[in-house]
Task: inverse folding
């Protein structure tokens, strides 16, 4: 059974960074890319970027190029997103989601809520 | 970037009714269109991919159609468990992948 387990809620101060994890199980981690999606409170979905765990290659939406850094650890089948220079605009739920060659997101993590507060 | 315009933003319907949600792409996306269902407090779940292919385990009352820039999601015989927010997403060619603004479906 494919599962994506995400780390727990984070509270970050303005200007600081947070790092969220997404541990994959039930499939070969390097056979799929991992996407990250942002959902601000009561809002829609924004694609942040993706990482190919096999090669470590990444691609980001322009808006998130200076905000997010995606990494992956194939030894633990875990993908990470680090969000830097936090502002109130970063308060949101962040999802990891798997996609294959067809690029639709067939499995999602439960989401990690990030709150930016002083 | 490809823009996805979804309508309506909200929808109220009765049990057993048929509802349709529309998604318009800013350019031809050649059926590279997925639909997701998000229940309150949960992550989105894949319903439809390639515009009209039903994901495993999704009830047959859900169907997708469309081509070019215009796509739709149809729910036949609305059930109470269908109360959700629905999103379309284009995944044509190269990133960034973009989502529609969502449709909130409620029971009348």
Result:
């Amino acid at each position: 059974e494919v599962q994506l387990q995400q780390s727990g809620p984070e509270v970050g101060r303005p200007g600081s960074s947070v790092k969220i994890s997404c541990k994959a199980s039930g499939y070969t981690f390097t056979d799929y890319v991992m996407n990250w999606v942002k959902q601000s409170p009561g809002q829609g979905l924004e694609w942040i970027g993706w990482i190919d765990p096999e090669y470590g290659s990444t691609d980001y939406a322009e808006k998130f190029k200076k905000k997010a850094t995606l990494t992956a650890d194939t030894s633990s089948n875990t993908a990470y997103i680090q969000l830097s220079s936090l502002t109130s605009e970063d308060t949101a739920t962040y999802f990891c989601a798997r996609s294959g060659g067809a690029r639709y997101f067939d499995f999602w993590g439960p989401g990690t809520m990030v709150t930016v507060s002083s | 970037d490809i823009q996805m315009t979804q309508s309506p933003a909200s929808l109220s319907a009765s049990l057993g009714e048929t509802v349709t949600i529309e998604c318009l792409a800013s350019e031809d996306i050649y059926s590279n269109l997925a639909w997701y269902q998000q229940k309150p407090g949960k992550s989105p779940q894949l319903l439809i991919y390639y515009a009209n292919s039903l994901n495993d385990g999704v009830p047959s009352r859900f169907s997708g159609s469309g081509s070019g820039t215009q796509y739709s999601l149809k729910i036949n015989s609305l059930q109470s468990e269908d109360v959700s927010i629905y999103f379309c997403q284009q995944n044509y060619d190269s990133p960034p992948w973009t989502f529609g603004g969502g449709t909130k479906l409620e029971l009348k």
In short: The interface with chain B takes residues 35, 44-47, 49-50, 59, 61-62, 95, 97, 99, 102-111 of chain A (CB under 8 Å). Residues 53 and 74 of chain A are 7 Å apart (CA to CA). The mean pLDDT of chain A is 97. The two ends of chain A are 40 Å apart (CA to CA).
